[in-house]
Target: HTH araC/xylS-type domain-containing protein
Amino acid sequence: MKKHTPPAGLRSYRRFSQLRLLDYEYDPGERTDFHKDRIPRISILLRGQLQERLQTQEAWASPMSVVIKPADALHANQFGPGGARIISIIAPNGWPDYLAEHFLNQYAWFHGRPTISAASDFLQELVDLKNESQLETALIQLVAGLSEEQSPHKDPPSWLQRVAEQLEDQYDETIQIRQLAAASDVHPVYLARIFRRYFHCNPKQYQSHFRLRRALDHLTQQKPLVHVALDNGFADQSHFTRLFKSSIGMSPGSFRKLVFRIQQS
Model:
């Protein structure tokens, strides 16, 4: 009889009739070689950071990033200095009919504000998960959140990508659209229009969202909230709390408690 070897990093496994819920944990700096999961999945990065490489592209992920991964996606991973914790939902027989969304057949990472909010809501449902119907409802709502980020414009032009990188590099500074436009040799109105087309927000909102993404990583650690706020470019803790709650739907403290509770379950 062939001995079954559990997947690397697997901590727990819950079986339902059509779906499976898996919890993975990876060590600091751990790597995986190129491989295929062979079962379609949606995964949420709960804690840590990772780099995922395909043959023609790569992605960097931080807490509340979500990936849709078809069964045939050949990929390799490099986990960050703090390791990583990942929650995955898999469908051994393919996605059920109620999830018949065309984009579930395409490999993609999601990092935007709708995804963070949807992923947080999904995790809240996991805390008291009792049956498959509850998991189905939570998964439908998660997929609906991901669909808000769908766009026919996948890759921004190189000059616009440089604008986004400048906003990230200078996340703790206020940068005016006219400065960005001058550096890119385009008209400010044109920059604002094209930026919104590709990133679904204006440059100020993009920079604010980047600060929130940085803060999410720090919230999965034991750093005091006031330090999380100041280290990520917010004026003070109350400013950080207001913006976080309006974007994510819960306070930074509640989010931290949620992540810790799931990690201890």
Observations:
- Residues 1-5 have pLDDT under 50 and may be disordered.
- Residues 16 and 130 are 11 Å apart (CA to CA).
